[in-house]
């Protein structure tokens, strides 16, 4: 089932999400709905707060980015093959490497894209959909997508990394998004 995506201005996007247990209601169906919603919306990741649930769960498919890079771009990320993965109860344990800029967007903040600086690699502890524990290091674009989605479960948005002047210049567009004055090709939920 395709779920409505919460728009900028909704309070759930600013909450620190809670860990869940294997008995979380209808977890398997919820994860399937998140995948379906993400693909329907042309996203490469989506976090539970974006579909109005304040739990520490997100899904990432960075394979679709890596597979669509041309050969020169693939050489820029030689250690990044991409992942298609569920992350439950994730907690970043380490950030490494130089921060680098990449033009990011967000399904909850449609039609705004900006350069955001993030670390080259992230080490993260998480559980998969079977609640098996993992600690892995990810690099390049995959690390960036993971960090973007991780921010959602920490109550942060990519626009929080922008300089004050840039945020001020975007204020009108952000206000329009929070008021529902925007048209997108997917279902959205606005703050009441």
From TrEMBL:
Query: Which residues does Fe cation bind?
Result: 106, 148, 152
**Alphabetized InterPro entries for the sequence:** Peptide_deformylase, Peptide_deformylase_sf
Sorted alphabetically, the keyword list is: Hydrolase, Iron, Metal-binding, Protein biosynthesis
* Molecular-function GO terms, alphabetical: peptide deformylase activity
| Enzyme nomenclature, EC number | 3.5.1.88
Designated gene of the protein? def
Protein name per the record: Peptide deformylase
Under catalytic activity, the entry for this protein gives: N-terminal N-formyl-L-methionyl-[peptide] + H2O = N-terminal L-methionyl-[peptide] + formate
Give the protein's biological function.
Answer: Removes the formyl group from the N-terminal Met of newly synthesized proteins. Requires at least a dipeptide for an efficient rate of reaction. N-terminal L-methionine is a prerequisite for activity but the enzyme has broad specificity at other positions.
Catalytic residue positions: 149
Q: How is the cofactor bound?
A: Binds 1 Fe(2+) ion.
Family to which this protein belongs: Belongs to the polypeptide deformylase family.
**CDD domains named in the record:** Pep_deformylase
Tell me the superkingdom of the source. Answer: Bacteria
Q: Which cofactor does it need?
A: Fe(2+)
**Iron: present as a keyword of the record?**
yes
Q: What is the lineage of its organism?
A: Bacteria, Pseudomonadati, Bacteroidota, Chitinophagia, Chitinophagales
Instruction: Write down the species.
Output: Pinibacter soli
